[in-house]
Amino acid sequence: MTTITPNAGQTASQASDMLATVSSDEQTLRVLLKPHLSVRQALDTTDLRVRAACGGLGTCGACLIQTVSGEFNPPTLAERQKLLPEDLAAGMRLACQLRPHSHCTLYLEHPAPHSAWKSLDPTQLYHASGNPAISEHFYGVAVDLGTTHIRLSVWNRQSGRRIGTRYSINPQVAHGADVLTRLNAERLDVQDCRRIGQQAREAIMDGIRDILSRDMGEITPVLAALGKVLIVGNTAMLTLICGNSGDSLYQPENWQSPIVCLPTDADAWRQIWRTPHADIDIAQPLAGFIGSDLLADLLATGITEQSQPMLLADFGTNTEIAVWDGTNLWASSVPGGPAFEGVGMRNGLTAEAGAICKVSASGLQTIGDAQARGYCASGFIDAIALLLDKKHLKPSGRFAEPPTEQGFLLQADVPKSAIFASDIDIFQRAKASTAAAMAQLLALAGLKVNELDRLWICGSFGQHLDLNSAFRVGLLPTLPSERISLLANASLAGCEQLLLNPAGPNLLNEIVQRARTINLGGVFEYENRFIDNLRLQPMPIEEFQ
Amino acid sequence: MLDAYIQSYNQAVFETDKPAALDVVNQALSDGFSPEDIVFKLVIPAVELMMTLIEKDPDANLAQHFMTAQIAADVTEKMLEKFSKPPEMIGRVVIGAAYGDLHSLGKRIVSGCLKSLMVDVVDLGTNVSAEKFVDTAMTENAQVIAVSAMMVHTATSEKGSLGVRALLQERGLEQQIKLAVGGAPYRFDPELYIKVGADAWAPDGVTAAKVIVDLIREVKP
Ligand code: B12
Ligand code: FES
């Protein structure tokens, strides 16, 4: 049973969405407001957050914001209690109570101090029913420790209430964009290794504190009542956070076999976190390079409970792919390469403000409508699709006319829209390794693309992705959009289920029992598929019939 | 006389269009050209042309390298079976992916280019120990050991090309057997091949074939 609602095909904005222009003295943002979200909730997902010390109930009064123009809901009871009538008359409101009825302009005089943490849209996360049997230490935390991002949520496990969600860049990125470079850094000296692991622990606690301070207004007592922390992630990240050496991951023998990730110093860890009662639990990875984040994806999507064949891909530095044939699961991972996270490209960016996230014949669109600073993966894929359509680029990956030293400028007056031949080459490799892996796993399972009942795209990669562009360049098999589901926070949703659903661990176990891990390094046809898939064209038709 | 074929074959290879390239070869065969002509006048010149093109053109991409090598190797292999007498080989190379490394694609391109240039290739596969490289090179009388490593740690490990160098030294084979390396880490650090004790490296398969042929000629004039 799936209790979450993925985005079918596209994350289109709706007519009922209101556009808010929000300014502070430092920046101006344009934010789309969904009708079910307050202004605070919408801003919590951006760089410009209001101050807050309660869960948005209107009890702390910290989230003051000035309305400048537009129509809004009338002041709530909480606002009339917290704000003076003259302030209300002057347009002051509490952002957590405020819902615009038209496009609007807002001014934020005292934004929250800058932080890397942002809230996630909870509509796609897990819905828990609560567990009255939990009588003490009833807070719990679910963590998805990704190579590039950390996502987490804090829960009242007893009532099943989610207190808050956050995501941020993993500070370990500073040690190397890809998993091995990070392990390599660790390999150089034991101190370094510890430090990198410590850094992830600190980051997680920082995120927890951000939630507690903003969404509950108290920290220490809640930490003292924290009973469980559950962490999913890829094998390398889990190895590091446990304080283990990554040496075992270098051995090809371990690539396909389970690797045990257990904290070496659980007591010290609890002490530093000031969570004396927290059971810190690591969801064990499937194999050397298939993490428990993939298992969490599978749990969240409920694929393995279906009788229909499905394919799941979690794009990232390490792209994990699983094919479910109705009985068995075929799982593998490929180095999608930091290419999908914008690293390595001359004008590559992660999906952050200023990243070109959509490209069409009519122009470029950036995240937050900010000035273009480079491409994130979805924008780059759009750009390649457009260049192919316009015949500026050939399926071989070469430009019809060699670009100048400035690269191929997609928009003449935007220097950061330049694309270089080497970027295309890097992308082709990443694309080929991913598409070939999908085709290979399907072949092993004896399935054709058109037999797939559903294709799940997990991870934030899918957030801005234009499916037609992805089909056009051959990154995804061409399927009708109603058979494609995007689930940005699948790993966290699965981790939440594991934390809160008493049946979770059993479900996980069943998935593990059904899983066959495939080492593509040992599959000869994979090589041929890789070569075939280097071409920038829709996936070869043989994979379809 | 092969001119028309040469042009369309080169075009197909350049555009990484394998079916089109194979069509040209089949057409030439059915038009009565000999397998020898096809290899020596069509395929090898195309590889050599790609070498010069790629040298001049930093934008040549992986797909093109692959196609050049792949098509050349495929066609050569098929044609060799049909040769009236076996061709003379330039020399012999033992190739494989370094210990701990399962990336086999890089060496595949290199092998493809070598084969089409009439170099005998003994492919040891992936995850190959230094001992196996050297032992095989000795029993097979190879002039060159070629070690492919796609990851930093497999390129720099004592069990990789450093290990091969140590064994060559130990067994006094350094004059008879040369060591070539390649793979992603070498492309990031062009000095790396010296640090791992290699005699030469190359950034791509087409150049690799040239570099390795040069090494063979050093040992076997
Ligand atoms: C395809 C691929 C795979 C495939 C390999 C399939 C196969 N049968 O080969 C699979 C999925 C199995 C794989 C696995 C892994 N991979 Co991998 N892989 C790649 C990828 C995308 C392409 C590599 C490739 O085959 N290129 C094609 C070759 C032909 O191109 P090339 O490297 O440029 O080779 C040319 C030259 O170097 C030269 N050359 C090559 N060899 C030689 C030898 C000689 C003697 C000479 C002269 C020249 C020469 O000629 C070649 C042809 O032009 C790269 C990314 C990239 N951008 O390179 C990552 C990459 C190499 N992988 C990487 C990683 C981390 C892994 C994994 C650990 C992780 C994972 N989850 O998958 C595992 C490790 C498995 C193991 N123990 O070996 C990292 C290495 C990072 C690092 N710091 O070292 C890379 C760089 C991706 C990344 N940025 O994260 N991988
Ligand atoms: S009153 Fe709005 S967040 Fe507390």
Automatic annotation (TrEMBL), chain A:
InterPro entries: 2Fe-2S_ferredoxin-like_sf, 2Fe-2S_ferredoxin-type, Beta-grasp_dom_sf, Corrinoid_activation_enz, Raco-like_middle, Raco-like_middle_sf, RACo_C. Residues 309-544 form the RACo C-terminal domain. Residues 30-100 form the 2Fe-2S ferredoxin-type domain. Pfam families: Fer2, RACo_C_ter, Raco_middle. Residues 139-305 form the RACo-like middle region domain. CDD domains: fer2. This is ASKHA domain-containing protein. It comes from Methylomonas rosea.
From TrEMBL, chain B:
Pfam families: B12-binding (PF02310). PROSITE patterns: B12_BINDING (PS51332). Keywords: Cobalt, Metal-binding. It comes from the Bacteria. Residues 90-221 form the B12-binding domain. InterPro entries: Cobalamin-bd (IPR006158), Cobalamin-bd_sf (IPR036724), Met_Synthase/Corrinoid (IPR050554). This is Cobalamin-dependent protein. The lineage of its organism: Bacteria, Pseudomonadati, Pseudomonadota, Gammaproteobacteria, Methylococcales.
